[in-house]
């Protein structure tokens, strides 16, 4: 009985087919696991022919079917736990959309433990926190990245009350500014298991993406997420399965023999509990 319970509830899901069998919610796609690590957060810019870049192109295509309404789209990306890859997914989703000649604004709204600034090696001297307290204006707090058409608003200096800032009316103004001036607004948020900020922010979004990592994704966790989506009436929700091993991927990644990849290898530690990015000092070109 113990073995049966472990198999049913605690065995991790390793393929997109297993994930689809465990939920009735849409599955947007998968991201491959590759051992080699990069020192930059913009994976798709380092090697456009890598397995990771191909995976993000597939996600970009599939995302068009989640919300067919015309006009600017706000995409929120979160995860259940730290270390599942939601920040790198946010950065590269924003970048791949920008490479399709779309104007994209990336918002670093994980104010509890901001990671976008470290991945992009940018100074968070101004950003969301300075806008919310009235120290800076929205337009002047947006920074350009090395990717054409991709701008970012970082978290700004670490606030003592991050969750209260999420509730601020000024935050809605920031999102509305993005919708009025960009084709896409991509929002990186905290994991739902630790902080409820992402659930609150979903009211402002058109698409909500939930990143699961094969290291942690069990049927018990999937069941909890299904319940969360139903109880909060979350619309246009979809899963992304990260860290899929090459021999288990169902897509055509095998014909790409490049060393770059995405899942599980970026030095992600835990959500502010002893982990770090482990990035080197190399700047993205």
Give a verbal description of the structure.
With 285 residues, the chain is of the alpha/beta class. It has a single domain, classed as Rossmann fold (3-Layer(aba) Sandwich), CATH 3.40.50. The chain is built from eleven helices and eight strands. Strands 1-8-7-2-6-3-5-4 form an eight-stranded mixed sheet, sandwiched between helices. A hairpin with a 5-residue loop joins strand 4 and strand 5. The radius of gyration is 18 Å and the shape is globular. The relative contact order is 0.26.
The number of helical segments is 11
Distance between termini?
55 Å
Q: Note the beta-strand portion.
A: 15-25%
Mean pLDDT: 83
Total number of beta strands: 8
Overall structural class, as computed from helix and strand content, comes to alpha/beta
CATH architecture: 3-Layer(aba) Sandwich
CATH superfamily: P-loop containing nucleotide triphosphate hydrolases
CATH-derived topology: Rossmann fold
What is the highest CATH level, the class? Alpha Beta
**How many domains comprise the coordinates?**
1
Helicity, as a percent range: 25-40%
Runs with pLDDT <50, length 5+?
248-285
Strand order of the largest sheet: 1-8-7-2-6-3-5-4
Order of helices and strands: HHEHHEHEHHEEHHEHEHE
Shape: globular
Query: What's the alpha carbon Rg, rounded to whole Å?
Result: 18 Å
């Amino acid at each position: 009985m113990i073995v049966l319970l472990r198999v049913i509830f605690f065995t991790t899901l390793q393929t997109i087919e297993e994930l689809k069998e465990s939920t009735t919610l849409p599955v947007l796609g998968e991201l491959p696991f590759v051992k080699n690590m990069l020192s930059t957060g913009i994976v798709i810019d380092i090697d456009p022919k890598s397995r990771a870049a191909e995976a993000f192109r597939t996600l970009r295509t599939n995302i068009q079917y989640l919300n067919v309404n015309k006009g600017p789209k706000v995409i929120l990306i979160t995860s259940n736990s730290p270390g599942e890859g939601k920040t790198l997914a946010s950065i590269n989703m924003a970048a791949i959309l920008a490479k399709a000649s779309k104007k994209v604004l990336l918002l670093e709204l994980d104010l509890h433990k901001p990671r976008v600034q470290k991945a992009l090696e940018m100074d968070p001297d101004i950003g969301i926190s300075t806008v919310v307290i009235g120290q800076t204006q929205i337009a002047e707090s947006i920074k350009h990245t090395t990717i054409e058409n991709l701008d970012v608003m970082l978290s700004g200096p670490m606030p003592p009350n991050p969750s209260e800032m999420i509730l601020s009316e000024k935050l809605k103004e920031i999102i509305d500014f993005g919708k009025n001036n960009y084709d896409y607004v991509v929002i990186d948020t905290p994991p739902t298991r630790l902080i409820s900020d992402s659930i609150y922010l979903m009211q402002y979004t058109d698409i909500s993406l939930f990143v699961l990592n094969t290291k942690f994704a069990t049927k018990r966790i999937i069941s909890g997420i299904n319940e969360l989506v139903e109880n909060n009436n979350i619309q246009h929700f979809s899963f992304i399965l990260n860290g899929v091993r090459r021999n288990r991927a169902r897509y055509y990644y095998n014909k790409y023999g490049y060393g770059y990849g995405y899942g599980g290898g970026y030095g992600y530690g835990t959500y502010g509990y002893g982990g770090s990015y482990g990035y080197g000092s190399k700047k993205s070109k």
